[in-house]
Amino acid sequence: MFRGVITALVTPFDENLNIDFESLENLIEFQKENGVDGILIFGTTGESPSITDEEFVRVLEFVKRYRDDIPVLVGIGSNNTQKTVEKARKILEMGYENALVVVPYYNKPNPTGMYVHFSRVAETGINVMVYDVPGRTGTFIKPETLRKLQENHKNIVSLKYASSDFDRLAQHLINARQDFTVLSGDDNLTVPMISIGVQGVVSVASNVYPAVVKEMVSSALDEDFKTARELHFKLYPVFRALFVETNPVPVKYALYKKGIIKSPSVRPPLGELAAQSKETVEKSLF
After folding, report:
1. How high does pLDDT run on average in the chain?
2. For 38, phi and psi rounded to 5 degrees?
3. Angle of helix 111-122 relative to helix 81-93, nearest 10 degrees?
């Protein structure tokens, strides 16, 4: 599943900030119908820091019904190695095989600590997509550290790369094991990244436009960059609007305006989209 378009799903809430399972079902069905290659539950876009342990289990029990229809990736990362390992074991018990594990934030681990963190998770047997997002974590995984992890853990299988540093990206691609994939973590950089070897995207925009994002990525992977460029420019106002404020506040508002989820609610410490930002999102939609 570590190729193509993986939608980083929002976690829909009702107006009382309880999980809205009906909207979650609508959203997953929408992704299935439009041919994405997988879905990510509890990534950044899924407001993972605001989800309780009980809700984590309830949602994954709910999503089980879709595992035969669409590959599922589960976000389990934290800045606590033992807790991340425990979550890996938990989702394995529930029948999930693939996990997104973010570079530890706040702690700012050195390369030795970074290696130990991901090694401990990999030792559970879960398939790991490393998530490198320096804008949120305050640090990044060095190419040589990731290469060492790939050499010693065959189940560290992919990298979600959410950075505009193309020099470091090139190092990751050059160092990559033959069966290791790198995916873009930024919709607006996906097409140029594919041109140098990236194999897809973990997408925010595909929540709203799964078929168009899928066509854009498929065209780029087929080296039809004329079509990919046209679709990139078509989607570009959406890419920008969905980050007019902190993700996932804008994308939830877009999904609400498109009638895919029933409420744009986000949990504190996130807050409602500002009036001007709502206008920006609405103008970008087609």
Report:
1. 98
2. 180, 170
3. 20
Q: Can you give the chain as a three-state secondary structure string?
A: CCCEEEEECCCCECCCCCECHHHHHHHHHHHHHCCCCEEEECCCCCCHHHCCHHHHHHHHHHHHHHCCCCCEEEECCCCCHHHHHHHHHHHHHCCCCEEEEECCCCCCCCHHHHHHHHHHHHCCCCEEEEEECHHHHCCCCCHHHHHHHHHHCCCEEEEEECCCCHHHHHHHHHHCCCCCEEEECCHHHHHHHHCCCCCEEEECHHHCCHHHHHHHHHHHHCCCHHHHHHHHHHHHHHHHHCCCCCCCHHHHHHHHHCCCCCCCCCCCCCCCCCHHHHHHHHHHCC
How high is the pLDDT of residue 67? Answer: 87
Known active-site residue 131 = yes
Q: Which of 96, 115, 148, 160 is catalytic?
A: 160
> Would you call 160 a catalytic residue per the annotation?
yes
Residues 19-77 have pLDDT tens digits of 999 999 999 999 999 999 999 999 999 999 999 999 999 999 999 999 889 999 999 99
pLDDT tens profile 205-260:
999 999 999 999 999 999 999 999 999 999 999 999 999 999 999 999 999 999 99
Query: Taking the model in full, what pTM does it have?
Result: 0.97
- Find the catalytic residue in 115, 131, 161, 209: 131
Q: Which CATH number fits domain 4-222: 3.30.365.10, 3.20.20.70, 3.40.50.150, 3.40.1190.10?
A: 3.20.20.70
